[in-house]
Amino acid sequence: MKTIRTRTLAAAVVVAVAAAATVSAHMAYSKSMPEKDATLTESPDHLQVWFTQDPEPAISQLTLEGPGGEVTLGETTVGDEKSIVAAVSSPLGPGSYTVGWRSAGDDGHVLRGDFSFTIRAAD
Length: 123
Prior knowledge:
This protein has one helix at residues 2-25; strands spanning 29-33, 39-40, 46-51, 61-66, 69-71, 77-79, 83-87, 95-104, 110-119. It is an alpha+beta fold and 123 residues long. Strand 8 (95-104) and strand 9 (110-119) form a beta hairpin.
């Protein structure tokens, strides 16, 4: 009986370690500029998203939707410290904006996400 418990416990530990390794193998959103849900007083000159792993340049992309629809951005490139970045081509007016991002990390799984920020009108 003790041998069965020991084997069961050992198997459970192996499964838990394997699950933890799998979870940590996936890339995840870390932070962004502008920050998620930020309210800005002026237009950002670029968008940047940081991840927990180095992003894959070939599939990394940033998009921006604003009050008038899609906003033109510069080319998405890999930036410093596990990030992707794109220039904002022209100043943004007041309103709500949604940044969409797509990339992949070490395991090749494509991840997508988004976050919003607001630019408030000048006082």
